[in-house]
Amino acid sequence: MTSADALHDDPRGEISLRRAILRHVAPARGIRATVEQVFITEGSQSGIDLCCRALLDAKHMTWTEAPGSVALRAAVGMTGAKLLSIPVDPDGVRVDVAIRRAAGARVAFVSPAYAFPSGVQLSLARRLQLLDWAVTNGATVVEVDYEGELRADGAPAPALLALDRVGARECVIHIGTFSRSLFPALRLGFAIVPAALVRPFARVRAASTRSAPYPLQAALADFIEDGHWARHMRRLKQATRRRRDLVIAELRRLLPKETPPSVPAGGALFTVHLPPFVDDRALATALAERGVDVLPLSLGARRRAPTRGLILGVGAHTDAALLHAAGVLSHAVREAVSAGMQPARGVRRARSRH
Ligand SMILES: Cc1ncc(COP(=O)(O)O)c(C=O)c1O
User: Fold this and answer.
1) CA-nearest residue, atom 16 of ligand 1
2) Sign of CA dihedral 335, 336, 340, 341
3) Tens digit of each residue's pLDDT (9 = 90 or more) over 94-120
């Protein structure tokens, strides 16, 4: 580290890491950009926060997928902007519904490669519809790419920035994170923003945390440039696939047949959908007390159409820990489902009186 490095204070972050991302991380998603456009952030959440601060205030309307990320909702909520929940079907988020309900929205937050948590991909027709809407209306599309190139099998879908659509490069922000590929506590990610937004985004960064710690950024840049990243990703994909298949087989064996796990193609996350009478938040809390961390599906769902379920991932746990967790979870789900299927006491008594 030189004395110049010690004074480093570009609000976009360390140049060597921004270059390494463009050379070795973004190409897997078909993204081409200039180093000027790259901001280092503290994970994807800080990228979302940056977009919120730079683009939104209380008079704006925005939309996102539902179910979707709870943390994203919280960040938009802090700006006071209105956030519409748009349903997701097997072709991804219903862009037609969003355009009908929120044609004048300032920002759309989407995860086209892998909607959280369903894992569905946004179809090409809808991607083009989304970009055309944004170009025509001067809106911004924030692509939150939680998974990045981490697909347990198959190649990841290209990012929106890989599409050759007139005007798309001026309206798409791509947000990536190292939380899944390395680890969440690293708190590093990146945002690739259109050239016209570089200055306003830099002003926001300069007014907040400015930049992640330099030594951490420099170390990650070296890790990527020295080829460790590529090797690590190959091994991680293999390990994720193996762990996922282990857990899925165990869950298929142990879960009640009414609640099989839904496993998106290539995904490292999956969902156990539950009947509407099961309180998924209470079940998640009970599981956490027994050392199994899951996310309730209803947390990020639309209020009017809450879907119940548990979102699971395999992380970096050992096989033994994963098998144990699958057993604990299956037992808890079986109990919750069978308790809910018993007629309530009052109902039974009322029926027996007739
Ligand atoms: C749905 C969802 N929300 C939030 C996060 C956390 O984001 P980060 O650690 O990148 O800020 C992730 C991480 O992958 C995620 O998948």
Assistant:
1) 146
2) negative
3) 999 999 999 999 999 999 998 888 888
